[in-house]
Amino acid sequence: RPAATPGAEPDQPEVAQKTGTLQEDSRGSGARNGSVQQLPQTIIIGVRKGGTRALLEMLSLHPGVAAAENEVHFFDWEEHYSQGLGWYLSQMPFSSPRQLTVEKTPAYFTSPKVPERVHSMNPAVRLLLILRDPSERVLSDYTQVLYNHVQKRKPYPAIEQFLLRGGRLNADYKALNRSLYHEHLRRWLHFFPLRRIHIVDGDRLIRDPFPEIQKVERFLKLSPQINASNFYFNKTKGFYCLRDSGRDRCLHESKGRAHPHVDPKLLNKLHEYFHEPNKKFFELVGRTFDWH
Ligand SMILES: Nc1ncnc2c1ncn2[C@@H]1O[C@H](COP(=O)(O)OS(=O)(=O)O)[C@@H](OP(=O)(O)O)[C@H]1O
């Protein structure tokens, strides 16, 4: 694991524990009710900081979905992949055979070896890709790594030091590369047709999650069971939170952080940098997004 890009998520669970999660119920009574572990029929492949946790938690509101709690990093970490599909299976939640199993590992989208590996597990797997404004994603990515350093009481340079080199935008900054969505998606399209990849608009998921989640239900051929009443806007958090069987919960405090202030001129450079790549991406997917 490269030390410079620590795992995006902290290890601790990010949402308040649900009482009686599907996993816990079935784990406790697995021997009696015939619950099983299944390889995921659907995977949230990224993008890092796109809203992958929110998407997973929102999808888990559906009784037909069983989600792996932690990021599994099977296809992108050699020490996991070398242990084979048996290991991968052992990481999955217990579920009823009729439920869909889903896992999310945001690093999959940008890891070169992953598309072929996922394809060799199951060419019919349904992929969920949640994207957000590429410039905003860069700021979020920087903020994540900044917090990782702050937690360890380590210093971390200001964002300008990464974004600029000799007065020009530094194309070698990894966070910029991760936002070149067309390059990464192209690799996936060598192995999967576009119809197997559903792209969730991460900016819309923030502003108004329910319509985006309805589209995901349809893509996964799930019966429409998630309702508008499962979401409420929490003014304190500034984001939508979830309401499930009368219980309210927001995502962990590491989700929805304030981003650093960036000089408008530099921000403009960033927007310009992504202009062409975004156009290429829109052509690739036959759809446009409301990005800068
Ligand atoms: N409902 C709700 N509540 C809180 N946060 C929300 C929500 N919906 C989407 N988001 C956005 O999710 C961003 C984090 O993305 P990921 O979960 O993919 O991050 S990670 O790569 O797994 O670390 C996170 O990015 P930051 O705002 O930069 O913290 C949020 O903007």
From TrEMBL:
Pfam families: Sulfotransfer_1. GO terms for cellular component: Golgi lumen. The keyword S-adenosyl-L-methionine does not apply. InterPro entries: NST/OST (IPR037359), P-loop_NTPase (IPR027417), Sulfotransferase_dom (IPR000863). Keywords: Disulfide bond, Glycoprotein, Golgi apparatus, Signal, Transferase. GO terms for molecular function: [heparan sulfate]-glucosamine 3-sulfotransferase activity. It is an enzyme of class 2 (transferase). Residues 1-35 are annotated as: Disordered. It catalyses: alpha-D-glucosaminyl-[heparan sulfate](n) + 3'-phosphoadenylyl sulfate = 3-sulfo-alpha-D-glucosaminyl-[heparan sulfate](n) + adenosine 3',5'-bisphosphate + H(+). 3'-phosphoadenylyl sulfate binds at K49, G50, G51, T52, R53, R132, S140, Y240, K255, G256, R257, A258, H259. GO terms for biological process: glycosaminoglycan biosynthetic process. Its EC number is 2.8.2.-. The active site is at K49 (for sulfotransferase activity). Residues 40-279 form the Sulfotransferase domain. Coiled coil: none annotated. Disulfide bonds join C241-C250. Sulfotransferase that utilizes 3'-phospho-5'-adenylyl sulfate (PAPS) to catalyze the transfer of a sulfo group to position 3 of glucosamine residues in heparan. Catalyzes the rate limiting step in the biosynthesis of heparan sulfate (HSact). This modification is a crucial step in the biosynthesis of anticoagulant heparan sulfate as it completes the structure of the antithrombin pentasaccharide binding site. Belongs to the sulfotransferase 1 family. This is Sulfotransferase. It comes from Otolemur garnettii.
